[in-house]
Design goal:
The chain is of the alpha/beta class. It has eight helices and ten strands. The chain has a six-stranded mixed beta sheet with strand order 6-7-8-3-9-10, sandwiched between helices. The chain has a four-stranded antiparallel beta sheet with strand order 2-1-4-5, covered by helices on one side.
Length: 241
């Protein structure tokens, strides 16, 4: 899934949240978004997912067949997109099993297929999600995060968007999600967009990293050789919080 961001701008009052002239995300890329709080990472994701309307500009997705769509003009992109931005994406009065079964039905996945899919994420879930009787709202923040990420993957999307997926997770789960995302990308060729404040994890999994500041992409960093860490550390050492 190729994505083109064209002249997109979003303001909230006098604050410019996103202001990007042109940016392209290639099919099959794992792209990391980094930046200080308020840099525009989450707002950009919400624009890509048509959760908020841009003041001007658009987001264009190009499918494998070459056909392009404007995400604000159709809902067709929802058929191949999985996303987890925050816990507002989950229904917290259900148990994890009930919620994942609900998502499976929406995606026309039967119970047998669901069981097979969930096996792929057993290491990541670490025995803390499936079969638990707790409602999602009573889970720890980390386990809520796991439910949301697994739900986003159930469709086997060709575009996966995760906002701060390492937040709230213990070190074992952080390593598990890194391996999961890299393997999923290699297996499916999916385009994956990840925002994170954790520079080490971002550098580990993202061959390309976009650095945002005040809503603008100020650096487009080639990290194919894993060399971006020093550049990012230097920026965040001198950049005001």
């Amino acid at each position: 899934m190729e994505i083109k961001i064209n002249n997109i701008k979003k303001t909230f009052g006098e604050k410019v949240a996103v202001d990007i002239d042109h940016f392209e995300i290639c099919k099959g890329e794992i792209l990391g978004l980094v930046g200080n709080n308020g840099a525009g990472k989450s707002t950009l994701f919400r624009l890509i997912l048509d959760l908020i309307k841009a003041d001007n500009g658009n987001v264009i997705m190009t499918k494998d067949d070459g056909n392009s769509i404007d995400v604000a003009q159709t809902e067709e992109w929802k058929d191949w997109t999985g996303a987890y931005i925050d816990d507002s994406f989950i229904i917290d009065y259900l148990t994890p099993d009930e919620y994942l079964q609900f998502i499976a039905r929406i995606c026309h996945i039967n119970d047998e297929q669901l069981a097979e899919e969930l096996k792929k994420y057993e290491t990541f879930m670490a025995g803390e999600i499936i079969g638990q009787k707790k409602l999602i709202r009573n889970l720890s923040a980390g386990n809520k995060q796991k439910v949301g990420i697994v739900a986003a993957l159930l469709l086997r999307p060709s575009l996966l968007i995760l906002d701060e997926p390492f937040n709230f997770l213990d070190p074992s789960s952080q390593n598990a999600i890194k391996h999961l995302l890299k393997e999923y990308n290699q297996e499916t060729g999916a385009t994956i967009l990840v925002s994170s404040h954790n520079l080490n994890h971002t550098v580990d999994i993202c061959p390309r990293i976009a650095l945002l500041e005040a809503g603008k992409i100020i650096r487009d960093i080639d990290n194919s050789d894993g060399s971006a860490e020093k550049e990012l550390e230097t920026y965040f050492e001198v950049s005001p919080l």
